[in-house]
Structures are given as C-alpha cells and as structure tokens.
Amino acid sequence: MKCLAIWVSLALFLNFLWEIAQLPLYTLWDDPDRMRIAAYVFHCLLGDVFIAVSIYLLTIIVFRDLAWPVRRPWTAGAFMLAARLGFTVFSEWVNVYRLGAWAYKPAMPLVAGIGLTPLLQWVVVPTLMLFIARRLPAFRAAAR
C-alpha cells in the first residue's frame, strides 16, 4: 500500500505540473472565468491520476509483480507506456472530435490529429515517476 500511495503522490504532483504547463495550448485558456479553468484542471488532474493508478495496477496484474518498477522497469515500463499512450490516443480523439469536451488551439502541434503535449505527457510523466519510484526505499523494500 505504501508503494501505491507514493505512486498516487507522484502522479498528482507531476501531472499537475504538466496540466498547468500545457494549458495555454487549449482553448480553455482563453476563458475569462478562472474558476471554470481551475475546475477543468482539477477534473483533468483527477482523470490523470485515475489513469496512472489504473495502469500501474494493471501492470502489477499482467506481470504478477508488485515491485515491477524495481525488478522489471524495462518490460513492465514499456507495457505501462504503451497502455497509457493507447488510452490517450483514444481519449483525446473521443473528447476533441466526438464529444467536443475540449479543443486545441492552433498552436498545439498535432500528430495524426492528436495533440503532441498530451501524447508526451504519457511518456514523460510516467517515465519520471518510474525513475523516481525505483530510487525510493519503499519500492526497493517491496522488491526484496
């Protein structure tokens, strides 16, 4: 449970920083209602943490290893990144092009119609999380 709490904390902190940094690339940034912007950022952050934790737990199940960040960082980490990227492509496509839940500004670089920053978010943030987690005593103890 300690490892899961750390994973949640890392997901909260790093995804919050990423969400704030990429916000100017979304049309929401131009909304004059700052409370609405804050509510959307909070909503997105909760979604990010849910995705991060769900895929972390899925990786535990698939690899049958609670300490995969220490024992299997390459294979399990690659699985985790692929799962996150797959979900991101699906989610961005549905939310931008089907539901209209959010929209990109023209400044957002696109890869096959999907925003580059959300794609990078699910490569950079989990890689940092894995890098940090592997060095923490709780994860090292779980690997013993």
Can you walk through the features of this model?
With 144 residues, this protein is mainly alpha-helical. Strands 1-2 form a two-stranded antiparallel sheet. A hairpin with a 2-residue loop joins strand 1 and strand 2. Helix 1 runs antiparallel to helix 5 and helix 2 packs antiparallel against helix 4. It is elongated and about 50 Å long.
For the largest sheet, list the strands in their spatial order: 1-2
Fraction of residues in helices?
over 70%
Total helical segments: 6
Oligomer: single chain
What is the 3D shape? Answer: elongated
The residue-averaged pLDDT reads: 95
The tally of beta strands, per DSSP, is 2
Report, as a whole number of angstroms, the end-to-end distance: 15 Å
The whole-angstrom Rg is 16 Å
- Beta-strand content bin: under 5%
Given as residue ranges, the uncertain stretches (5+ residues, pLDDT < 50) are none
Helix-strand sequence = HHHHEEHH
Largest sheet: 2 strands, antiparallel
Alpha-beta classification = mainly alpha
Break the fold down into its secondary structure elements and pairings:
Elements: H1 2-22, H2 34-63, H3 68-71, H4 75-98, E1 110-111, E2 114-115, H5 116-134, H6 137-142
Antiparallel strand pairs: 1-2
Summary keywords:
single chain; 144 residues; mainly alpha; two-stranded antiparallel ribbon; 6 helices; 2 strands
